[in-house]
Design brief:
Structural class: alpha+beta
Largest sheet: 7 strands, mixed
Order of helices and strands: EEEEEHEEEEHHHEHHHHEHHEEHHHEEHH
Distance between the termini: 36 Å
Radius of gyration: 28 Å
């Protein structure tokens, strides 16, 4: 797999002006060495880490304007990464009319194209795309992490510079060109055809040099680029379990698992605030020693969806399986053998109208996933009247998007848990039926 992470930029070849030390006497130097720090070259993730740079953003401004990416995709053969970033439609500077016009211009020429396959299926330009240029040899970059008095350095495999992409505007140019060609064909068809002289020519066989030059041409590169399929990638929140596991690997298997970035470092500056996050940013090592009735809800709030095996692996040895399962059932619902945080667990105030709306919307999405369905953002908004921002925040930690299909539950079926704990699954089914009856009362028999 490829891990696209944004970490501290370290220039390992700084040009420092050399100055002769000021000698106080024959043996004493004014700038003595006060400590020696061992340097460890860690290659655990060396072939998988990529640095993302955003050269058009000011260093003091958030990269994503407080909105996390909702989709990411990658073309490995051409090393191109794209991310879709939501646009704040509620902002006073947002021009809704122009956004709808741009979305209409971006639609493909084929009117029969399904809504979810259009660039902007919601009928408005509600996100913008960042596309990358790739540097395969970032010699001066590494990720540095101090741990237990040692400096762990992990080399960066590749560097992506992310810039706005406006490829959707090409559809408007194609449409205008097509309309012009159709008008010319219609004009020709109205004129009387006359006999015309036909010219014939013979094409000379191409030399090996000509064929090689064609293979290196921009047109050939463009054709190959367009033919390569996008591979969807899941955007993992920085506070999620998967991200925390990757961060542990920066100090090797024997190092401390603590990963608390210092205030003002590069990672904190470019990462937008997490919506509905817990107040205290605790590390996994700080959470797991807590009593399980406190630890498990905290883990679910951060990860949203976990497997039983991943929870069990991080809990103290004195914990029993029954205790863990009972606590999980109290705080989560089961989908394909995975534990998904209950919607009420993620809301700090479950009585406000906005919170109730978000919980109903999320329960509707969970209902569809429990039945093995895929959904589109348009379907969710039409059924629940939820805002696009809420829908994006619900789907991002739970689902993965597939082109021409929609959003589906991201976790595979955990047959090992389903087979070993059928009684727990049955108990969870009873509790979920109560949620489902509430959805039927709210949205009707056809969900």
């Amino acid at each position: 797999f490829s891990a696209f992470l944004v970490f501290v930029e370290m220039d390992l070849s700084l040009d420092v002006e050399e100055k002769k030390p000021q000698l106080l006497d024959d043996n004493e130097v004014d700038d003595p060495v006060i400590a020696e720090i061992p340097v460890v070259l860690n290659k655990t993730l060396a072939s998988q880490l990529h640095l993302l740079q955003f050269p058009l953003k000011h260093a003091n401004l958030p990269v994503f304007n407080h909105y996390d990416p909702v989709q990411a995709r990658f073309k490995p053969n051409h090393q191109i990464l794209e991310m879709d970033i939501p646009i704040g439609a509620n902002n006073e500077n947002y021009d809704g009319g122009q956004a709808e016009k741009l979305a209409e211009d971006a639609n493909p020429l084929d009117d029969d194209t399904e809504e979810q396959t259009k660039p902007f299926p919601n009928g408005t330009m509600d996100y913008h795309t960042l596309s990358s240029t790739f540097d395969p040899n970032p010699r001066r970059y590494a990720i540095g992490k101090m741990n237990e008095g040692k400096l762990f350095l992990t080399p960066i495999h590749g560097l992506f510079q992310m810039r706005p992409s406006f490829n959707f505007l090409d559809e408007r140019d194609k449409r205008e060109k097509k309309e012009k060609e159709m008008a010319q064909e219609a004009l020709k068809s109205t004129q009387l055809s006359e006999p015309q002289r036909v010219k014939m020519s013979y094409k000379r066989a191409e030399s090996a040099r000509t064929i090689a030059a064609k293979k290196k041409s921009f047109n050939t590169h463009k054709i190959n680029l367009d033919e390569e399929e996008w591979i969807p990638h899941t955007v993992v929140p920085n506070s999620g379990l998967q991200a925390m596991e990757l961060q542990k690997m920066l100090v090797g298997v024997e190092g401390s698992n603590d990963f608390s970035p210092l205030k003002g470092d590069y990672l904190a500056q470019i990462t937008p605030p997490i919506i509905h996050a817990i107040n205290k940013k605790q590390t996994l090592d700080e959470i797991t020693p807590l009593p399980i009735h406190q630890a498990i809800p905290k883990i679910l709030k951060r990860a949203h969806v976990v497997t039983f095996a991943s929870i069990w692996r991080h809990l103290p040895e004195s914990t029993t399986i029954d205790e863990v399962i009972n606590t999980l059932l109290h705080n989560a619902v089961i989908i394909n053998g995975n534990f998904v945080a209950k919607s009420s667990l993620l809301e700090s105030d479950t009585r406000s109208h906005a919170s109730i709306q978000r919980m109903l919307t999320r329960d509707y999405v969970l209902y569809r996933f429990r039945h093995g369905d895929t959904v589109t953002r348009t379907q969710i908004r039409e059924k629940t009247n939820a805002t696009l921002e809420d829908v994006n925040n619900i789907l991002k930690p739970l689902a993965v998007h597939t082109k021409n299909v929609g959003w589906g539950f991201k976790m595979p079926r955990d047959d090992a848990f389903l087979d070993a704990h059928s009684d727990a699954v049955a108990k969870g089914e009873v509790e979920w039926n109560q949620v489902e009856r509430g959805l039927l009362e709210r949205f009707g028999e056809v969900l």
